[in-house]
Design brief:
The protein is of the alpha+beta class. 26% of the residues lie in helices and 39% in strands.
């Protein structure tokens, strides 16, 4: 093999290795973009409700350009850590979901349940809470006072 053939071979190998490197890099970046890790939810407020039950407000952490979302739960904490409660609450449906900031939420305990005041859109709401009381269930009412502060959104049509 002559010196020129060897240099041509080395150049070709470097060229193909460079192409393979950039293909692998682009594949990795596409995979990282499509499967970016979810930000963990965070319990931002815990408030006592009735003996053995607490109200939990969980905020979904998202990218800064996406709106925040609060999920409202009633559950027995049982002395669990926040990490364990996040997992437990993630497996139960919330009774209220809103895009409200925490500072715009007021939760009041009333005689027959809860009265919640908030500013922002509500995407899911249940007006009754059925909480276990030994072998039976007790119904608590959830009244909602909501003020929408956003302008109407375009329909996208």
């Amino acid at each position: 093999m002559t010196k020129t053939e060897l240099q041509t071979l080395i150049f070709s190998v470097k060229k193909y290795l460079t192409i393979i490197f950039f293909l692998c890099l682009s594949g990795f970046l596409i995979h990282a973009y499509l499967h970016k890790p979810e930000f963990p939810s965070e319990i931002v407020l815990t408030q006592d409700f009735i003996p053995g039950q607490s109200i939990y407000l969980v905020q979904d952490a998202r990218d800064p350009d996406e709106p925040k979302r609060l999920r409202f739960y009633v559950n027995d904490g049982g002395g669990r850590s926040n990490e364990a409660m996040r997992v437990r609450l993630g497996k139960t449906p919330p009774f209220l979901v809103s895009d409200t900031d925490l500072k715009d939420v007021v939760i009041q305990h009333v005689s027959n349940g809860l009265h919640i005041k908030l500013k922002g859109a509500v995407s899911n709401y249940q007006s009754n809470l059925y909480l276990e009381d030994g072998d039976t269930y007790t119904t608590y009412r959830v009244s909602l006072e909501q003020v929408e502060t956003r302008p109407p959104l375009p329909s996208g049509r």
